[in-house]
Amino acid sequence: MAKCIPMIITNTGILVKDRDSDEFRAFNMPGLESTPNIPFYHQFASKIAEDQHYFKEFVKSIYGKKLAKYVLAIIVPDDTSTLESIFINEFFVNSGACKAVAQMTMGQALSKDYTRYISVSKSARNVILQYINNNEVRAVKMYDETNYDEKVIKEDAKRLHIDVEYSGVPVFVNNINMNMDDFFDMGTVITPKDFMDKISAIDVEKI
Questions:
Q1: For the chain, how are helix, strand and coil distributed in percent, rounded to 5?
Q2: Alpha helices (runs of H) in the chain, residue ranges in sequence order
Q3: Predicted TM-score (pTM) of this structure
Q4: β-pairing, 70-76 with 3-9?
Q5: CB-side exposure of 149: number of CA atoms within 13 Å?
Q6: Which residue among 26, 79, 105, 173 is least crowded, i.e. fewest CB within 10 A of its CB?
Q7: How far is Cα of residue 35 from the mean position of the Cα atoms in its chain?
Q8: 181's torsion region: left (phi>0), alpha (psi -120 to 50) or beta?
Q9: What would the DSSP string read from start to end of 67-94?
Q10: Model confidence pLDDT, tens digit, residues 132-145
Q11: What residues form DSSP beta bridges with 132?
């Protein structure tokens, strides 16, 4: 099995698992500014080589110089678009900080005990419902983070997919960004510690 470096892209930054513990260390790129509805990593495109160098040096400070043996397991927000996913993969695989990358949404990482479930999360742009079946996203629905009705979202979760309509599935509320108070009554709340514990033990072969 390939050696794995778990990494989480949150609403505001990047967390990389420490090699010698289950703790995550924050990678902070100097000079980034917050822009409404635009993920922070979009700014990497304006100075790719410089940002890739900083990231590689950061990972080297944790994992040493022999980074070519590692696969970077990247956990992304649930509303990451196809183009954003491609950019993320290309940016990190070409940074020299790993030999390859694997990527999955946060919702796909919420449970190992259930093969079918609903996840609900909130990014910097959207509230996102996902139906997960056997580690695959089978259905997704998004709502503007600045203008949503939590009652509508809770009702939509009950019929997000035909599987859900005919047999109830558990709901997991992803509170990694500490912004899900409106949805705590929907199901099991995953705290930041819970989430990081799950990612610490992630199996890259399943991504």
A1: 35, 30, 35
A2: 48-63, 82-93, 150-157, 162-166, 192-200
A3: 0.91
A4: parallel
A5: 4
A6: 26
A7: 19
A8: alpha
A9: GGGEEEEEEE-TT--HHHHHHHHHHHHT
A10: 999 999 999 999 99
A11: 117, 137
Closest CA relative to residue 74, chosen from 199, 201, 205: 199
126-182: pLDDT as tens digits: 999 999 999 999 999 999 999 999 999 999 999 999 888 767 799 999 999 999 999
Contact 29, 44 (CB under 8 A): yes
Query: Which of 31, 35, 61, 59 lies closest to 47 in space, CA to CA?
Result: 31
Count Cβ atoms within 10 A of the Cβ of residue 39 and give its class: 0-12 exposed, 13-18 middle, 19 or more buried: buried
Contact 68, 99 (CB under 8 A): yes
Amino acid at 18: D
**Taking residues 193-199, what's their average pLDDT?**
91
Residue 34: both structure tokens together: 């917050």
Residues in the chain: 207
- CB of 23 closer than 8 Å to CB of 17: yes
**Is the sign of the CA dihedral 63, 67, 71, 73 positive or negative?**
positive
What is the CB neighbour count within 10 angstroms for residue 92?
A: 26
Tell me the pLDDT tens digit for each residue of 92-114.
999 999 999 999 999 999 988 89
